[in-house]
Structure formats: C-alpha cells, structure tokens
Amino acid sequence: MSKKEQILCAAQCLMLEKGFVATTVDDICQAAGVTKGSFFHYFKDKEAMGREALTDFAQCTNDALCCALPENETDPLKRVYNVVDAAIKLTRKKEINGCLVGMFSQELSQTHPAIRKICERLFDAQIASLEKDLSAAKTKYAPKAKFKPKELSEYFLATVQGSMLVSKAKKDNSVMERSLKQYRNYLKTLYGK
Question: CA-CA distance, 102 to 10, in Å (whole number)?
C-alpha cells in the first residue's frame, strides 16, 4: 500500500468513526504512520483529501458489492434481488460503521459545496445503476404498473442510508437487515415475483 493509500485508508476509518470536522490532519497522519509533509505532498488540504477519500470509499464499496453479485445473471429482476441480498449479507459481516457518502452528505452539505456535489453525483450514480434494472424488470414483469423505477431506486438508497443510521445508533445490524428484507418484499408485491 502506498503512502497515499495509507492516508486515505486512515482518513476513511477515522472519519467514519468521528466525522470529517472532528478528524484532524494530525489524527490522520498518526493513524497512517506518515508525517504532515507526506500528507501535504499528496493533498492540498484536508478538504482535497476528503474529496478523494469520498470517491475512493464509494469505489471500494461498489467493488465489494459487485464481487458479491453473480456475473452471468441476465434477468433484471433477479439482478435487483441480488443487489438487495448482497446488501443484506454485508449487514451480517461486522459492525456497521456507516457510509462515508451518507456521513459527508449530512455533515458537510451546507458548508462544503464541492463535497456536496460529489455526494450528489455518487448517490445519483447508485440510483441510476439500480434504476436501469428496475426499469427493465418493469417492462418485463409489470408493464402496466404505475410505479416509477427511479423512485424505487431512490427508495432503496433511502432505505440503506436510513437503516444504516438507525443500526449504527442502536449498535444492531438487524435493523438494517430487516429494512432491506422489507424493501425486497415490497418489490415482490410490485413485480408479482
């Protein structure tokens, strides 16, 4: 792992625990085992590091989810269920520390417009990705239904983010697991499968 990767990894862990504002550059350097000079060699300032930590976190999360999905699934509804099931499996692995995108959205949207735009872009990408399969599944299984696939995709994201907050506050992953199962059951009523 390069020094830059060490810094990003340490920053992500600390910021998931303490938030962006409460995490200092000194904290990050100490956790990464690097000097401040190394930090500022790679990043102009803490916000620049935060922007990169955010996009790196989102990419790693997406990669982990993709690895959990079967590669050859062609049915769009099964792909959606696979995404939901993969998210459920992730809740069983360890304590949920949260989502950096969600945390930064809550903590920094009013004060750091560049970070807010990154959060918006990352959330929009997640919504669009699931919407594609939800839309194809609607065409195939429920063409006359009145629901909107984009809204279902937004609902999935809201379910994940909201239940993650409650799970973190309660220190109980089963809250998130139950919420995701309810989302899955709701999809079954809409699609009839």
Answer: 18
Can you tell me the distance from the alpha carbon of 189 to that of 193, in angstroms, rounded to the nearest whole number? 7
Give the C-alpha separation, 141 to 135, whole Å.
Answer: 10
Q: Domain with 171 in it: what CATH number?
A: 1.10.357.10
Whether 8 is in a domain gets the answer: no
The Cα 77–Cα 137 span in angstroms is 5
Tell me what the mean pLDDT of segment 166-179 comes to.
Answer: 92
pLDDT band at 97 (very low <50, low <70, confident <90, very high): confident
Q: Which amino acid is located at 95 in the chain?
A: E
By C-alpha distance, which of 54, 73, 157 is closest to 114? Answer: 54
Whole-angstrom Cα distance, residue 181 to residue 185? 6
Residues 6+ apart with CB under 8 A from 61: 99
Rounded CA-CA distance 11/34 in Å is 12
Q: What is the pTM of this model?
A: 0.92
Q: 3-state DSSP helix/strand/coil percent for the chain, to nearest 5?
A: 75, 0, 25
Residue 165 lies in a domain: yes
